[in-house]
Amino acid sequence: MRLVLLGAPGAGKGTQDALIKERYGLAHVSTGDIFRENLKNSTPLGLEAKKYMDAGQLVPDETVMKMVGEKLAEFADDEGFMLDGFPRTVAQAEFLDGKTKLDGVILFNVDDEAIVRRLSSRAVCKDCGNVTTRLEHDKCPSCGGELYTRDDDNETTVRSRLKVFHEQTEPLIKFYRDKDLLLEVDAGQKPEEVFACVAELLNDDKN
Ligand code: AMP
């Protein structure tokens, strides 16, 4: 199974990604994670991406497509995966179209104000990468690790990431609906409720 997880920043793609991985054993590729890893290691790619990430803007298409192309080449033809955070523009979606056939694109719908509230309390575990909320936890509820706040989870950057989503990524909804690949989920619910909807859609889709 090859999937794309589509949704605004903070729509819960990372959380669902982990749950889908656990249930369906699918490998995942998160372009945001790859950029953050590169940034941590101060690679040229990480340093190039930083200026866009800090401003809540998209890294240029050519850079992202080259990186994703290399990543996808690592998968065998019959190997499944899900993409989180890619594609984010029509040019990226067309590029992906030329690389692989998808089984579904899950769209996580949440309204902007809920996202701003969610991201202002979002925290990530330094050890296991688990995504959680500071409203309920001081330490990672999964492994007890230390939590940190992503640099781009401040309100100003979140609002520009949302603007970028509406302007540049939202056209993908029509792109994938026209290809009959779009599977929509109400992501304003609790993570386990969202996952129940995802699982139902994926099971239906496989039958
Ligand atoms: P994310 O973790 O998916 O929210 O991504 C964090 C940041 O990485 C984004 O705000 C962009 O600056 C950059 N980024 C991640 N994926 C892409 C992509 N597909 N195209 C362009 N920029 C991206």
Unreliable parts: none
Bound molecules: adenosine monophosphate
Helix/sheet category:
alpha/beta
- Helices and strands, in N-to-C order? EHEHHHEHEHEEEHHEH
Name the helicity range.
40-55%
Radius of gyration: 16 Å
Shape: globular
- As a percent range, the share of strand residues is 15-25%
Main beta sheet: 5 strands, parallel
Distance between the termini: 13 Å
Description:
Helices cover 50% and strands 16% of the residues. The protein has a five-stranded parallel β-sheet with strand order 2-3-1-4-8. Strands 6-5-7 form a three-stranded antiparallel β-sheet. The mean pLDDT is 93. The two termini are 13 Å apart. The structure holds adenosine monophosphate. Adenosine monophosphate (AMP) binds next to helix 2 and helix 3.
Outline of this structure?
The protein is of the alpha/beta class. Helix content is 50%, strand content 16%.
